[in-house]
Amino acid sequence: MSSTETPVHVLILAGGAGTRFWPASRAARPKQLLPLLGGEPLITATARRVLPLCAREGSAGWERIWIATGQHLVAPTRAALPDVSERRLLVEPAPRNTAPCIGWAAATIARDDPDAVVVVLPSDHHIADVPRFLEVLEAAVASASGGAITTIGIRPTHPETGFGYIEAEEAAGAASAASAAPRKVLRFVEKPSRERAAEFVASGRFLWNAGMFIFRAGDMRAAIRAHLPALAEGLDEIDRAAALGAEAEAVLRVFPRLPAVSVDHGVMEHVAGLAVVPGDFGWSDLGSWQSAWELAEKDERGNSAPAGSVLIDAQGNHLVDLRGRDGGARAEIDRRVIALVGVEGLVVVETDDALLIVPRDRAQDVKHVVDALKARGQGRHT
Question: Fewest CB within 10 angstroms: 96, 119, 169, 254, which?
Fold first, then answer.
């Protein structure tokens, strides 16, 4: 099935605090708004790579891209996505996790396009093999078009403890084991211990949960009604107001009191007939500076560093210089040289108001810096 046969709309989830990428990422500039891998911001790359799925004759597909974000991120998000109309920005007046956001989007998209299949994607992931990614999404769209709420599962490459897992029904044979054919979901599993993760990977039945969901808008509304009735009631109230031209007021009134629950826990774990399409397309959730180093271009000693850095007897380091990034000419005039001598496995990130130095293998702990700064009353740096 091609995207031209089924109207496909893409909802990009673009909230988040981005604490693991401090000091580059801040509350007002989370990681999806940063060019962490060079070039364009992550959210721009996310939208651009799915345009072929949304395109129709005479249109590049931007009118079928929707963004869910918070009020404080509207301006920078619009700057990163100038081709997405303001009408396609779903601005949440309060953070309520993903189920309310996705339910509201499903209802809004259904009013715009009743036959739509909705593809929900995080805004801040990296995809190395875009053609393969689109093939997997096409298979998921076909599955969803047939009535099955569908997710994408990433074939694990190692026993990762930082991801949730999806246990899928075993493929029928060796050939289909490597295919993108949908499989029945048996269960979701929370982040496991290293021993359990190793068992999952060895079994061949488990996939990483990447937070990608595909469904017909009506099917998601029905699932929410069945498993989250309080959320369904609130969404119905917003729907009734929308029919009277008063949706904006209703969202401000209703959304903050919707139950705060993820779509995984509130819906996906309870839906019968859920399908998963296995994918292997160079996926990374870019969860920390460690993963940014893994994907960055490096020299022969494994260092990723800006031009002009001095590296002597140093290896496996990740240097990021963001000073003057927002200051125009200062970017060149006030750039200082970064030099490393005799060190290994460090992350060094410098901005106009902060300097981070952390071992790469402790990159996940950067979020504790943000907690410490807030506790000390220095929230302006977060």
Answer: 169
Residue 308: which region, alpha, beta or left (left: phi > 0; alpha: psi -120 to 50)? Answer: left
48-107 pLDDT per residue, tens: 999 999 998 778 899 999 999 999 999 999 999 999 999 999 999 999 999 999 999 999
Give the C-alpha separation, 241 to 107, whole Å: 12
Helix (H) or strand (E) holding 186: strand 183-189
- Please report the DSSP string for 336-380 in residue order: PP-EEES-BSEEEEE-SS-EEEEEGGGGGGGHHHHHHHHHTT-GG
**Which residue bears the tokens 């017909």?**
216
Q: Which amino acid is at 347?
A: V
Residue 207, strand partner residues:
166
Instruction: Tell me which residue of 195, 199, 198, 168 sits closest to 184, measured CA to CA.
Output: 168
Tokens for 25, please give them. Answer: 């990422």
State the burial class of residue 377 (Cβ atoms within 10 Å of its Cβ: 0-12, 13-18, 19+): exposed
CA distance 4 to 13: 24
Interatomic CA distance for residues 287 and 31, integer angstroms? 10
pLDDT tens figures, 127-179: 999 999 999 999 999 999 999 999 999 999 999 998 999 999 987 654 455 56
Which one, of 255, 285, 264, 280, lies nearest residue 123 by Cα?
285
Which SS3 state, helix, strand or coil, does residue 316 take? coil
69 token code pair: 């974000």
Element of type H or E holding 32: none
Tell me, rounded to whole angstroms, the distance of Cα 105 from its chain centroid.
16
Q: Which amino acid is at 313?
A: D
Contacts of 307 (CB under 8 A, 6+ apart): none
